[in-house]
Write a structure and sequence with these properties.
Elements: H1 4-17, H2 20-30, E1 34-35, H3 36-43, H4 47-59, E2 63-68, E3 71-76, H5 78-105
Length: 106
């Protein structure tokens, strides 16, 4: 059984992923590296909102950045983000399949 402190860390991590804006940014960055200007165009979010969300994702180890001259290029931390997305997608497919089967039987 995880310690209460570890459970608190788990809770903070899942709370981080519960914000739709952060999930949207992760989905865009999963497709490939982007700068903030491209993320603004893709999402319609303000620069300050994107920067705040990216900072939180970076502290959690889900994204990283590199400087290219005056631009900061952001990218998802590939393996971890891919694993998380695959896990959630698999679970959602299973749940939807079970619901569909119930509707067909009922």
């Amino acid at each position: 059984m995880p310690s209460p402190q570890l459970l608190g860390e788990y809770s903070q991590f899942f709370r981080l992923l519960s914000e739709p804006a952060r999930l949207q940014l992760l989905c865009h960055l999963k497709q490939g590296p982007l700068d903030v200007a491209a993320l603004i165009e893709a999402t319609g979010f303000s620069q300050s909102h994107i920067s705040r969300q990216l900072g939180q994702l970076q502290r959690a180890g889900l994204v990283r950045c590199e400087r290219e001259g005056t631009r900061t290029i952001w990218q998802a931390d590939g393996a971890l983000v891919d694993d998380l997305c695959d896990l959630v997608q698999t679970r959602l497919k299973q749940r939807l399949q079970a619901q569909l089967e119930q509707l067909q039987v009922g």
